[in-house]
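Tokens for chain A. Residues wanted.
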């Protein structure tokens, strides 16, 4: 039996200096709090100063906001006509002449920063230059952040964690400055913003904050931002509320809390964030947590719950110990794997597919990219946490009526899943997003991973309509021309470098459709129903190739020699990495991998490309190459001290969770395959499940 405590705890992030580019976060999968060196968000402005900053946000999966008069749907958009084998289909790809509407639909709704919590000294902001970090540790086994620092040479000790089931932040502060009445905690509330930080601290007249005293040691702050309403319940031990009014509006949206001189040197604070009304969730009420009126647990009670949750998380899931390895890369791979499991637990265990930056900050306004849902969550099935995958997989059932309407409006059968959307499932206009296709088979693959981990008849019946209607759309999208079935225009392949009006048979989409259509028949057979999609799957064109290499598309003969076709995702490799297509010739795929390694523009890759390519190399039996690719030193394959996959060169992506999810998927596949890891990697695995 593995020493799981040792495996996890040896990778606790430990800082002895300020790490502005890699702040540490605590969370529960639906609520996340990112802290600076003080354990709170004292230096929000300083951490946000650089263009490529990693902002300090407080975010929840329910926290959505829209600007006033934002359009409710895309019914007024002018669509651009695309010829579809003699039939015209409209797509919202062109902003010209409708710029304001196009922009408003992209920016609304957006996630927002719920509230900034930071320290002040004698009522004044702290100066980063006067603070010194002695030690800041994120205890992964406990889920608690411990920050030991000084201000004006006086020690301060802060403990920060989030309740495992409630959107509640707990803070304990110990310092002589509290008893002296000097060190205080300030709450600052911004107006919601679509920008990376989710916060606008310059628009105080556009929102309201009302303080309501409830009882000794507690109070409520009610917040209104246009149609969005939420509250913050605050409970404290050691806090002086004598100066607080019974009820009052706070025009500056700021409240400062302290113990009062001579009272105590300890403050224990609980901050519970609760939705009151979120317009975008109006028809999805069951996504909002209940229990908002329950009493806040004490700090000690909550910390015990937090510790118990995290111990259970690490003990019950999969584990991969590489400590006995002789290869010098093993320690770094193990660190990335442990921290990636933690980050996915605090960012991506909600009822919605995550944004690409999870609950740390806004990327693409906090909206979901459903083509990334696979990379965010497939690993949960391999690492013994299939119940987490099932939670967000249920989102497809919620938005099935929307997916049906998208398909019907375009003249297709079944359900066409959106690409970039908000909780309601409506597509966001984009020159690219609405044309993407490779998210369509994801529900079938994700459901299959769930079923393999827990084969239950009820689950088969529960997802029957999702599987069948997804396959119906894919079958109706296939075109018959010249006696063969093809994936023809219009669409944008995963490698977003092609003309959507002309692309033909992009190989990853081609083989993913083939696999998913066949798998839909397997699902029907399990239910005792007649299979009906296999004929189309078998008649699909073969993956395009030339001169012994697989191409990016059938009409892209110079894939490896003409710019920009050797940039972005080398997606042709995915048909033998993410998938193991029976139509692929392994020798030709191996030669294609060699060509990619030789000529591809590595700086244009994204975080998930590295595990995707590693999976392909591994399936080809090239174990050493798989590890080289997985750990390659490259700007988009950088892993920060906090474990996040940093996309260097992208100001909007200080973190990129599809990279972390892909890393877990690739390593999980290697750990459960009979080939094992290459020599030098001694891997001890527990609780892992095989991939496809």
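Reply:
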């Amino acid at each position: 039996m593995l020493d799981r405590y040792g495996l996890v705890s040896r990778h606790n992030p430990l800082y002895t200096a300020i790490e502005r580019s890699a702040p540490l976060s605590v969370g529960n999968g639906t609520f996340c709090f990112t802290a600076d060196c003080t354990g709170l968000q004292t230096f929000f402005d300083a951490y946000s100063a650089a263009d490529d900053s990693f902002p300090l946000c407080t975010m929840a999966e329910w926290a959505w906001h829209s600007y006033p008069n934002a359009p409710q749907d895309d019914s007024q958009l002018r669509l651009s006509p695309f010829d579809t084998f003699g039939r015209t289909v409209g797509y919202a790809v062109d902003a010209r002449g409708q710029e304001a509407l196009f922009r408003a639909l992209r920016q609304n709704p957006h996630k927002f920063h719920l509230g900034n919590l930071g320290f002040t000294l004698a009522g004044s902001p702290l100066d980063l230059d006067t603070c010194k970090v002695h030690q800041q540790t994120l205890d992964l086994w406990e889920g608690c952040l411990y920050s030991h620092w000084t201000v004006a040479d006086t020690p301060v000790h802060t403990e920060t964690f989030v309740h495992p089931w409630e959107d509640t932040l707990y803070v304990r502060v110990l310092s002589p400055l509290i008893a002296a009445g000097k060190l205080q905690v300030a709450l600052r509330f911004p107006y919601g913003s679509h920008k990376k930080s989710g916060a606008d601290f310059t628009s105080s007249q556009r929102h309201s904050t009302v303080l309501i005293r409830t009882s000794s040691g507690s109070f409520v702050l009610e917040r209104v931002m246009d149609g969005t309403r939420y509250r913050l319940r605050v409970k404290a031990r050691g806090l002086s509320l004598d100066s607080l009014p019974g009820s009052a509006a706070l025009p500056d949206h700021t409240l400062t809390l302290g113990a009062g001189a001579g009272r105590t040197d300890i403050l224990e604070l609980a901050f519970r964030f609760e939705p009151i009304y979120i317009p975008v969730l109006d028809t999805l009420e069951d996504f909002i947590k209940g229990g908002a009126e329950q009493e806040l647990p004490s700090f000690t009670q909550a910390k015990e719950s937090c510790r118990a949750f995290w111990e259970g998380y690490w003990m019950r899931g999969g584990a991969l110990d590489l400590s006995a390895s002789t290869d010098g890369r093993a320690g770094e791979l193990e660190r990335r794997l442990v921290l990636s499991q933690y980050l996915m637990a605090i960012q991506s265990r909600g009822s919605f597919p995550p944004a690409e930056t999870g609950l740390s900050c806004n990327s693409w306004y906090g909206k979901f990219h459903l083509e990334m849902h696979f990379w965010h969550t497939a690993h949960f099935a391999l690492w013994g946490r299939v119940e987490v995958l099932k939670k967000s997989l249920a989102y497809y059932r919620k938005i099935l009526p929307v997916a049906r309407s998208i398909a019907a409006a375009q003249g297709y059968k079944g359900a066409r899943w959106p690409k970039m959307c908000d909780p309601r499932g409506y597509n966001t206009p984009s020159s690219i997003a609405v044309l993407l296709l490779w998210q369509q088979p994801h529900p079938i693959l994700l459901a299959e991973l769930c079923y393999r981990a827990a084969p239950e008849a009820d689950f088969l019946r529960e997802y029957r309509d999702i599987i069948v209607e997804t396959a119906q759309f894919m079958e109706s999208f296939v075109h018959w021309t010249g006696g063969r079935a093809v994936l023809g225009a219009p669409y944008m392949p995963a490698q977003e470098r092609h003309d959507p009006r002309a692309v033909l048979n992009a190989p990853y989409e081609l083989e993913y459709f083939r696999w998913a259509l066949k798998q839909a028949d397997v699902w029907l057979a399990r239910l005792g129903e007649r299979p009906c999609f296999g004929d189309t799957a078998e008649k699909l064109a073969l993956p395009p190739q030339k001169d012994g290499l697989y191409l990016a598309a059938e009409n892209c003969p110079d894939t490896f020699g003409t710019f920009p076709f050797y940039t972005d995702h080398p997606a042709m490799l995915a048909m033998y990495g993410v998938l193991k297509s029976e139509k692929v010739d392994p020798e030709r795929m191996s030669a294609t991998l060699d060509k990619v390694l030789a000529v591809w523009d590595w700086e244009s890759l994204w975080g998930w490309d590295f595990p995707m390519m590693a999976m392909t190399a591994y399936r080809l039996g090239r174990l050493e190459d798989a590890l080289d690719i997985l750990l390659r030193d490259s700007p988009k394959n950088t892993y920060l001290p906090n474990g996040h996959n940093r996309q260097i060169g992208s100001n909007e992506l200080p973190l990129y969770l599809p990279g972390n999810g892909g890393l877990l998927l690739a390593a999980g596949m290697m750990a459960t395959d009979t080939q094992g890891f290459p020599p030098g990697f001694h891997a001890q695995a527990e609780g892992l499940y095989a991939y496809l």
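Residues 5 and 430 are 46 Å apart (CA to CA). Residues 4-57+113-312 form a domain with the Beta-galactosidase; Chain A, domain 5 fold (CATH 2.70.98.50).
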